[in-house]
Amino acid sequence: MAANAVAHGLVSPVHTADLDAALRCADRLATGMVKINAPPPGVDFHLPFGGEKASSHGPRVQGKAALDFYTRTRTVTMLSAA
Is a pLDDT exceeding 70 seen at residue 65? Predict the structure, then answer.
């Protein structure tokens, strides 16, 4: 795929009326975001953000990925003092 033959992979736009083709293409693209029939610039702040290859530095940020990255799970057990 020609789109994957570049050093960067932040976002890829896919424009088509064929949803199946768009989803197959999205599976094959080496980018952090795929926008189907939507403009490529900009960030959806409720979704994970980050690229692939030279477009990335570290893990995804924002969205659920940020919760997983910036938090840790801890179990605390407490008995009544009385």
Answer: no
- pLDDT computed for residue 45 by the predictor: 57
Structure tokens at 52: 């692939």
d(CA 13, CA 76): 46
Are 43 and 66 within 8 A, CB to CB? Answer: no
**Residues 21, 62: Cα–Cα separation, whole Å:** 28
CA distance 44 to 19: 21
Six-digit token pair at 8?
């960067």
Q: Is the pTM of this model over 0.70?
A: no
Q: Which residue has the tokens 């999205």?
A: 26
Side chain identity at residue 13, one-letter code:
P
31-29-39-67 Cα dihedral, nearest 10 degrees: -40
pLDDT at 60 exceeding the cut of 60: no
